[in-house]
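forwarding from the other thread:

> can someone predict this with iron/sulfur cluster?

sure thing
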Amino acid sequence: MEEQEEKKEQKKKIKVKMREQPPLERIKNFNEVPHGYSPEEAVEEATRCLSCKRPTCVDYCPVEVDIPGFLKLVKEGKFLEAAYKVKETNALPAVCGRVCPQEVQCESGCIVGKKGEPVAIGNLERFVADYEAEKGEVMIPEKPKPTGRKIAVIGSGPGGLTCAADLAMSGHQVTLFEALHKAGGVLIYGIPEFRLPKQIVAREVDYIKKLGVELVVNAVIGKLFTIDELFNEYGYDACFICIGAGLPMFMGIPGENLNGVYSANEFLTRSNLMKSYLFPNYDTPIKKGKRVAVVGGGNVAMDSARIAMRLGAEKVYLIYRRSEVEMPARKAEVHHAHEEGIEFLLLTNPTRYIDDGKGNVCAVECVKMELGEPDESGRRKPVVIKGSEFQMEIDIAIPALGTKANPLLTKTTTDLKLNKRGYIIAEEATGMTSKRGVFAGGDIVTGAATVILAMGAGRKAARATNEYLKWKYWDVSNLAKAI
Ligand code: FAD
Ligand code: SF4
C-alpha cells in the first residue's frame, strides 16, 4: 500500500509525456512530430498544478496568460472554457503551445518544478487550442462599436497579428500589410511544418480576419507605399511596424557564393513557404544534398538540419563553434535533432567552402575551437586551435548564422530613428518611435528574439496606440504614465 502511494507520488513529479512519431519514421515525412495530449492525459497533467495563490508561472509569461485559471478549467474537463480563458490574453495559443521556449518562460517559474518536472503548461495550451479548433467552436468575440480610426499594421508575423487583433477589438479599422503572398511571418516561412503545421497558422490568421482585420498581401511597404503616404494619402491615423529582421548574415569566408550554398532563410522559405519538398506538385525546386553541412546552433540551424534530413540526405552535419551547453536553440529541438541522427560537430568552425571546378561546393574546410574567457554575451569565447584544419566532403552548405534588419522600409522613412545596426529605436513600454503616430516592435526593434516577445510588443503597442488616439500624446513619459 505504502509502496503504491510512493509510486503515485513519484509519478506526480513527472510530466505526462506527449506521444510522438518515432525518429526513424518521422525523418521520412514532414508531419508534425508530437501528437498532442488526449483529453485524459490533459486532465492528468493539469491536476499536477497546485493552483498557487501567488502563481509565479505568470510572472514569466510575456503576455500574462491566467495560467492557474486555465489549468483549473482543464482539470474540471471544461476544455472550451479553458481555451477562451487563454485567448483573453493570447491570440495565438496553438502557435505558442508549440514553439514558445516554455522551459525558460512560464515553466521555469512553476513551483512544481522545484521538486520535479514543472507542469507542462505549453503542452496544455496547445491541447486547449486544438480542442477548440477540432470542436469547430471557435468563439468570435462581439465586435465593439467602430471608433472611425484607421490603423496600418505592417508585417503579419506574430507581433503584427497580435497588435492587429487587439486594435480590431478596440473598434478601429485595421489593415494588415504583408510583403509575402501569405500571412504569418516566420511562423509560415521559417518554422517547418513538422514543428508548426501551416494549417494552424492559417487558422489563427483566419481568426484575426474574423475579428475584422483586412489583410493585404503582396504589399511591400516602402516600395508600394511609404509610411508618409499611408498617413497623408490614405488617411491612416497611426501605424505599427513589425517587419521582423529577415536579412540573412554570412560569415564572409571564401566560397559562400558557390552553387549549393544556401542562406538558411532561402532554404527554409523554399521548403516551408513554397513547399519545395513536394516538387514537382509545387513549382519551387530545392537541391537535395547527400552530405549537408548546416552552420550554427540556434533554432534556425536546427530546423534547417532537420529539413535536410527529411529531404533524404545521407549525412547531415551541424557545425557549431561553441559547445552544446551554449547552443541558443530550444532544448526540445536539440533533443529531436540528436534523435533524428544529425551529427553534431561541436567546437568547430568553417573557414572556406571548396569549389569542384564547376562552381559547385564539394567540400568545407573547418578548424577546431576551444572555449576561452567569457565574451560580452557572458558565454565563453571560442578560440581557434592552431593547426587543427580539416576538410569534409559536402554537396550542400547552409549557413544559419542569424539575421539582421532589412532596410527596405526604413530607408524610405528617414525621420524614423534607427540604432547603429539598423534596428528601429522604440520605447520599451509603448513601442513609440521617433516619428509621430508610428509604433514599432518585434524583431525589427529587439533583433532576432522569440514569438512570444514579438507578441508582447504587439500587445503593448496596441495599448499605447489606443491612448495615443485618445489624446494624441507625443511625449513618451506622458504616454507611459497613461497606460
Ligand atoms: P516576423 O515573424 O519576422 O514577421 C515579419 C513579417 O513582416 C514577415 O511576414 C515579412 O514578410 C513582413 N515584412 C517585412 N518587411 C515588410 C515590408 N516592408 N512591408 C510589409 N511586410 C513586410 N521563436 C520562438 O519563440 N520559438 C521558436 O521555436 C522559434 N523558431 C524559429 C525558427 C526559425 C527558422 C526562425 C527564423 C525564427 C524562429 N523563432 C522562434 C524566432 C521567431 O520566429 C521571431 O522572433 C518572431 O517571428 C518575430 O516576430 P515578428 O512579428 O517581429 O516578425
Ligand atoms: Fe500551477 Fe505551477 Fe503556475 Fe503554481 S506555478 S499555478 S503549480 S503552473
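The two ends are 57 Å apart (CA to CA). thats all i got for now
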